[in-house]
Amino acid sequence: MKKVITYGTYDLLHQGHINLLRRAKELGDYLIVGVTSDSFDRGRGKLNVRNNVLERVEAVRQTGYADEIIIEDYLGQKIDDIQKYNIDIFAIGSDWEGKFDYLNEFCEVVYLPRTQGISSTMLRAENQKVIRIGVVGSGRIARRFVPETSVVDGLVVTSVYNPNKESADSFAVDFSVKAFWNSYDMFLSNIDAVYVASPHLTHYSYMKAALMAGKHVLCEIPFTLSKHEADELYEYAESHNLVLLEASKTAYCPAFGHIITLVKSGIIGDVVDVKASLSKIVKPPIREYDAEQAGGAMNEHAPLTLMSIIKLLGCNYAKVEFFSKVESGIDIYTKANISYQHATASITLGIGVKTEGNLIISGTKGYIYVPAPWWLTDFFEVRYEDQTNNKKYFYSYDGDGLRYEIQEFISMIVNKRKSSYKLRRNESVTIAGIIEKYNLKENYTEI
Ligand code: C2G
Q: Cys-Cys with 153: which of 48, 112, 199, 347 at CB 3.0–4.6 Å?
């Protein structure tokens, strides 16, 4: 019996896939089809897959060509599968010509003709109205945003707004978008959504005006500097069917999501302590050192570190206390201790003090260690007393990592989801509330 194997995502199954499966089946007597898992696809940069793995397996099954369907979940699995299932022929579409020649060592490799004029990417584009995004602000983070949008389907950055004409113009030239500087309303009138990446203190009013103009909003951290403002904006968005999302980039990246699900499934027992650190030394003059613009380590770095704590221990903390080292009116270093009924947590932040930027989640059975820079999560280790049980997890964190939050934002708009389980409204509001307490100097000590 001649055994053939082929692999694919098979998103929005189309005639090209069906032709390929038929041709693969005709090469032998028994066809095994490997369908990629959702996490494997995310790991190889396929962020736009519309159908989940169960839907895609079912679509392949319904073609009637597969004698057996398996899930492809890791790099290198093809070599294992070929040997495990005694495969004679590995078949794949001609778009992969040459890429799988290394499998010749294990079986015959056949590149089958690809069907012209159809692809999952085309179908996704046809089924979806392209969302026009305007960027508010044209500084460092805004400049990182635009290239990241190019790997996500379904959106296009069309414009930029900055009251400083020169800055808006230079951004517009660099990214081939239209510049607005004198009228925020005019900027809003030709777009479907905004990405707010302006200085901290302007977030609230830009978000509010955008929501009131009926636009979806993705807003950089710190989302708002008060609980009340965050709550008010979410309330408005929800009651007007608009998506409002905090751009807490780490919350949406694959490795961090896996840490949360592993912890919630009890892999380290009950969580008793979380320590998150983030420091980036910068030198004045720069916005981070400007007290007038809500500079300082806390406003700058608390959002990501607090996000990890809130995701792991929840919103119902009992007490928070702050310790800061202050220079020229801003905190160059802040440590916050957050206590829960059955757990403790702390964040250590610096813009003028360097700390080891790792994340450590301690539980009753073991702990998770995420090395610096933990917020660009691509690796973590689950560690136990008996070190032979330790396990390392590797992921990719592609580009500047903003693609994951952008993908979530677009998917929420397309699928009309008002809330993301990756960062819920109450979690985002709790983070804003802790930052507010800091700025009100509640339980605050200067060191
Ligand atoms: N295909 C085709 N004609 C098209 C589109 C796709 O013949 N118009 C083929 C591809 O060449 C591939 C299969 O259909 O053999 C599945 O395609 P995708 O779902 O796009 O999966 P892909 O990303 O090519 O994954 O480990 C996964 C494999 O590397 C292939």
A: 48
